[in-house]
């Protein structure tokens, strides 16, 4: 089961995340638990694979907002980097960033179980 301490070890800024949830720990943890199933995550990966950089940007930007609001710093940093390339519709090899994102999302998924 996910805990604030586990999220701190993961690298999340839980103080900020909790503050944005008005100190409601149960709400914060419930919201964090939804992140691995976030539709924007799948949309981002699928859109990059299809080289649909308009959709990929929209998905990355939405995901960045979710991650920022929950202060999930490790994921937020990777997605923020992707957003900047996708904002310019940069046609490049995103595989390293995707691998990093998947690794961090997998680690969060383990915490959420």
Description:
The chain has one domain (4-112): Up-down Bundle (Four Helix Bundle (Hemerythrin (Met), subunit A)), CATH 1.20.120. It has 7 helices and no strands. It has helices at 4-10, 14-20, 25-34, 39-49, 53-69, 73-87, 95-112. It is elongated and about 40 Å long. It starts with a helix and ends with a helix.
- How many separate structural domains? 1
Mean pLDDT: 96
Structural class: mainly alpha
The name of the CATH architecture is: Up-down Bundle
Helix content, binned percent = over 70%
Summarize the structure.
Helix content is 75%, strand content 0%.
Keyphrases for this structure?
elongated, Four Helix Bundle (Hemerythrin (Met), subunit A), mainly alpha, 113 residues
What is this structure's SSE topology?
Layout: H1 4-10, H2 14-20, H3 25-34, H4 39-49, H5 53-69, H6 73-87, H7 95-112
Helix pairs in contact: 4-5, 5-6, 6-7
